[in-house]
Amino acid sequence: MRFGWVSVTGVVCLALWGCGPGSGPVRTELMAPEPLAAADYRAPGLPAQFGDTKPHPWEGRPPASYPVHGIDAARYQGKIDWPKARAAGVEFAWLKATEGGDHIDPGYGANAARARAAGVAVGAYHFYYFCRPAIEQADWFIRTVPARKGDLPPVLDIEWNHTSPSCQLRPPAAKVRAEMRIFLNALEAHYGTQPVVYTDPKFYEDNDLGRMAGVEFWLRSVSAHPSEKYPNERWSFWQYSGTGVVPGIGGTVDLNAFGGSRTGWENWLSGRAQ
After folding, report:
1. Domain locations in the chain?
2. Which residues are within 8 A (CB) of 264 and not within 5 positions of it... i.e. 6 or more apart?
3. Whole-angstrom Cα distance, residue 105 to residue 195?
4. Interatomic CA distance for residues 164 and 160, integer angstroms
5. 181: closest CA among 189, 203, 202?
6. What φ, ψ does residue 101 adopt, rounded to 5°?
């Protein structure tokens, strides 16, 4: 999930009620990326139906050794052909819904219902913005994403965003962890299920996130198994590629695995869904 709401060549920011701070929600435009054929990008260590435009020579336990796989997506993937993606092995998807305190990603609205109809377990994620208070961001997510029985838990996507055009703030670690708790507690109280936290190795290390007891992690590690990048940390989901190719999805997409057996996945889903 390397993307904030930064502009992309040929894409403009669309405002629902204006573009300035405090002038109302801002929605970015849905993209229509060129389709890629997964068969042209086959990669060792990945599930057979997926590809990767920048494959990694996996050693040790590769992603394909896990039985349950999914994606995370935003406006960059456009409208997804969910029956085709599901047939290729996509079983879950987290879709970007919000960022900061006033941004909406149209990918969630364009894809969530279609994903559910295709039998894909769906959830929403929020991209954290360090120049807005945590409670404002939690309130924004809650107002934007309705609670829906059976959906995946909400996700807090928190990482340093060096590409942000408006916020380069990097609070001290103790402040980061305190704000995370505020956000997570607010969402858990509203949705009735504990959120999942997505992060990457640098952010995890910089903010000593291993000190946060009781957090369920979804960890990015695109060059090694999570056990190498996050020693002794427990995790439920592993993002193993940011350049994946999946039937039914234009361009590239993030690839993820559930960190357990198929039975473990079924038990996790029944216990953690909203």
Report:
1. 13-272
2. 258
3. 19
4. 9
5. 189
6. -120, 5
pLDDT band of 75, cuts 50, 70, 90: very high
Burial 218-247 (b: 16+ CB within 10 A, else e): bbbbbeebbeebbeeeebbbbbbbbbbbbb
Q: Spell out the residues 6+ positions from residue 54 whose beta carbon is closer than 8 angstroms to its own.
A: 241, 243
Percent of the chain with pLDDT over 90: 86
59 flagged as catalytic: no
Chain centroid offset of residue 159 CA = 11
Q: What does the alpha-carbon distance between residue 232 and residue 252 come to, in Å, rounded to a whole number?
A: 31
- The pTM of the full predicted model, rounded to 2 decimals, is 0.92
Cα distance between residue 48 and residue 88, in whole Å:
9
What's the pLDDT tens digit per position in 184-219?
999 999 999 999 999 999 999 999 999 999 999 999
Determine which one of 34, 159, 188, 266 is catalytic. Answer: 159
CATH of 13-272 given 3.40.50.300, 3.40.50.360, 1.10.8.60, 3.20.20.80: 3.20.20.80
Quick check: 222 and 202 in contact, CB under 8 A?
no
